[in-house]
UniProtKB/TrEMBL annotation:
The gene is LOC109008033. It comes from Juglans regia. ATP binds at G31, S32, G33, K34, G35, T36, R144, S187. This is UMP-CMP kinase. It is found in: Cytoplasm; Nucleus. The keyword ATP-binding applies. Binds 1 Mg(2+) ion per monomer. Catalyzes the phosphorylation of pyrimidine nucleoside monophosphates at the expense of ATP. Plays an important role in de novo pyrimidine nucleotide biosynthesis. Has preference for UMP and CMP as phosphate acceptors. One of its GO terms (cellular component) is nucleus. Its cofactor is Mg(2+).
């Protein structure tokens, strides 16, 4: 048995394992409204929002050696190797000073999911899943007007295919572990947020 003094000494030396941060994965097809709703959640519930896509786009802009590879992958709607994305997420988490994160658009495939778990040992508190028809997502993406190179119909179709083939299985994985909180994302922004609020204020979400 460890004495109180030993425990205190360990803590002072920084050898006691730090408390793991709370992570909520925010998933859903391209254009389902993940970024829009995350901004609302940040305002109301004190999370830090980390969009994997935003971090990758910032990495391109920074002129990093991976920039060209990331740019080509995004243009094709393909998923960037986990190693790259996880490093960006870890850095952003460390820099934030917060211990509650909305990780938006990640994990996008099994490789993302398994690698994040391996490297960080973090399990999400739950997974927020924005469910929306392709027809509505396509409409939203084509009128997003943020100058994104991947918001054109050719790339959008590729992104939908990747979502169905690679991202839905991740949602299924968490669904079978009862971690998925599914939100109908087809209604107007304010209505979707009402459903989101119910999840974040639920007494069942102990980790939140
Ligand atoms: P994601 O991050 O999932 O790709 P965004 O939050 O960027 O999606 O939303 C995509 C586009 O759709 C944006 O132009 C946004 O303003 C718009 N949008 C988001 N949610 C809704 C909604 N519930 N109804 C209509 N338009 C929406
Ligand atoms: O989530 P968002 O729509 O911003 O993602 C844009 C693109 O960024 C994806 O289509 C994909 O090419 C890349 N991405 C990725 N891995 C992630 C998230 C995004 O490769 N986990
Ligand atoms: Mg987004």
């Amino acid at each position: 048995m460890e004495t109180v003094l030993e425990a205190a000494t360990k803590e002072a030396n920084g050898t006691v394992a730090e408390k793991k941060p709370t992570v909520v994965f925010v998933l859903g097809g391209p254009g389902s409204g993940k970024g829009t709703q995350c901004a609302n959640i940040v305002q109301h519930f004190g999370y830090t929002h980390l969009s994997a896509g935003d971090l990758l786009r910032a990495e391109i802009k920074s002129g990093s050696e991976n920039g060209t590879m990331i740019q080509n992958m995004i243009k094709e709607g393909k998923i960037v190797p986990s190693e790259v994305t996880i490093k960006l997420l870890q850095r952003a988490m460390a820099e934030s000073g917060n211990d509650k994160f909305l990780i938006d658009g990640f994990p996008r495939n099994e490789e993302n999911r398994a690698a994040f778990e391996d490297v960080t040992k973090i399990e999400p508190a739950f997974v927020l899943f924005f469910d929306c028809s392709e027809e509505e997502m396509e409409r939203r993406l084509l009128s997003r007007n943020q100058g994104r190179e991947d918001d054109n119909i050719e790339t959008i179709r590729k992104r939908f295919k990747v979502f169905l083939e690679s991202s839905l299985p991740v949602i299924e994985h968490y669904n079978s572990r009862e971690k998925v909180r599914k939100i109908d994302a087809a209604s107007p922004v304010e209505e979707v947020f009402e459903s989101v609020k119910v999840v974040f204020t639920s007494k069942d979400e102990k980790a939140v």
